[in-house]
Design brief:
Helices cover about 30% and strands about 30% of the residues. The protein is of the alpha+beta class. Strand 1 and strand 2 form a beta hairpin. InterPro entries: G_crystallin-like (IPR011024).
Length: about 210
């Protein structure tokens, strides 16, 4: 009788542990899904181009209306349709001019976050999956092993550097389009790249 009761108790404990593990696993999956939903970039709603306000309704992920936009700065907010709010720049030079002004504006507003992290990490899969590379400062044409391979990134801290830009082409090919992440906006978040940026980057730049 004692053996039977002992066996029943052991089985009950096993069932409870298995149920708890299953619930915990489901919670992790659900939380992961929420993170993916929150930070996966699918389309852009442009609020300004070269610092000038635009009618964003005519420039929501519409290539025919945004051919002049070469670099997209993604803000970590969405409109009611789920498009990520963004600023557009018609050239790398106009982006650099914005960066210089914005650095001065943010200089006294960026909180030093401990030792932070020095570098932006670039991953081959969404949600920081697979292999990764990191970069601390300046411009780099990606080696052939990483060309057209980046699917997600997590930025350096704003106390370490200001921004991360992905470029469609190498500097030898004229850079092409760019997508730009300001570290004070994206620090602590993982950005999954939009469909038209997934596995498209050939160069990276940290300012």
């Amino acid at each position: 009788m004692k053996k039977l009761l002992s066996g029943l108790v052991t089985m009950l404990v096993f069932v409870l542990v298995a149920s708890t593990a299953s619930a915990s696993s489901n919670t992790v999956v659900n939380l992961k899904s929420e993170v993916e939903k929150e930070y996966t970039i699918k389309s852009f709603d442009y609020l300004a181009v070269d610092g000038k306000v635009v009618d964003s309704k005519t420039i929501v992920n519409n290539k025919s209306n945004s051919n002049d936009i070469k670099v997209t700065m993604v803000l970590p907010k969405k409109n009611k349709n789920g498009d990520w709010l963004a600023y557009g720049f018609t050239s790398r030079e106009s982006l650099q001019a914005f960066i210089e002004k914005d650095k001065q504006r943010l200089q006294n507003n960026v909180e030093i976050m401990g030792s932070g992290t020095c570098c932006t990490d670039f991953y081959e899969y969404k949600n920081k999956g697979g292999q990764y590379i990191y970069w601390r400062d300046g411009f780099k044409n990606l080696p052939s092993s990483w060309n057209d391979r980046i699917s997600s990134l997590s930025t350096a801290s704003p106390s370490a550097s200001y921004s991360t830009t992905l470029w469609e082409h190498t500097s030898y090919q004229g850079y092409g389009r760019g997508v730009f992440f300001r570290h004070s906006d994206w620090w602590g978040k993982t950005a999954n790249l939009a469909w038209d940026w997934n596995n498209e980057a050939s160069a990276i730049e940290i300012n």
